[in-house]
Sequence to fold (362 residues):
Amino acid sequence: MAISRLHIERVRNIQTAALQKLQPFNVFYGENGSGKTSALEAIHILATGRSFRTHIPKHYIQNQKNDALIFAQSGQEKMGVQKLATGEQLIKVNGDSIATQGQLARLLPLQLIDPLSTDLIDHGAKLRRQLLDWLMFHVEPDFYTAWQYYARALKQRNSLLKTSRSLQLKDLEPWNQMLAEYGELLHSQRLSVLEQWQHFFQQDLAHLLPNLPIQLEYRAGFHSEQGLLHDLQQAHYKDVERRYTEHGPHRADLRFKTALGDADAVLSRGQKKLLVMALKLSQIAMLHASNKETVVLLDDLTAELDLTAQRRLIARLSQLGSQVFLTTLDHVAVQKHLHDLSISYQLFHVEKGQIHAVEPTI
Fold:
């Protein structure tokens, strides 16, 4: 779905912004610190319930204010979120309050590509699991329910592990059984989706890194040939000592393998940037193949990509039907790409938290 109207209140230095008649591409330009990224941050908060810059709401809520408000309209759909400094939130879709962010996330599939995106290659497994599970959430209808049951069992098991170092195997067996049942289901779902994703990934990789074969390698987080229940039982005493559950899909990882070794060790920063783009573009392509369009946030597009890579990325996103919100210091270069590719766009100048639509200069 494409956002036609966006309203932001009290997000960082943006007091109030009302953006109308949004286009397939929406370009925010201005000096550093003007509020460009804050506009993207607001969309991210609406779609996911969290900021991509901080986990603490009061850090993005305007100073000395109690809340932030983001509202968007897409066709007949109206959605909004109010984030309170206390950490609470109120979510509405078409005027009705909803209990979970998941309902909003399904309406507004969102991908973020920013200068820190290479962290998912260089840092821990959590970001890579999130990348895979974002795709799972949008293409596997039963994934979210299975994950909720798994997370509930994991929480209960870990709580028990923290209570005593003398727990017997029988004390954990009900949670072992539940964890194993839903963990095996999650594992099976991930394998199925990963097999489909590989096809789309290789297509985008061939365009962005044509001379560098890379394979996605999924690590289950447990010995899949023996089964999760076996691992949970075998690791009982170690888990009791550690006071947390070592094995399961919550410990899974996604690795990127080249002929010379793991991508994090052998690729340059520029190559890692292109790899991340291939990963995210291929996910967008997979959703597009299922008639699901994605909103894409591109922060600081021109910072680390040369002109050829910029144009290639813009062209691919347009081909996939994505609605794009991007920030840049070089709006002239971006306008030229969009003009030459015959892509409809809206230009916004951002200054001291004020956002104004301006006429294109090309």
In short: The mean pLDDT is 94. The domain at 1-109+293-362 is CATH 3.40.50.300 (Rossmann fold). The longest helix spans residues 169-208. The radius of gyration is 22 Å.
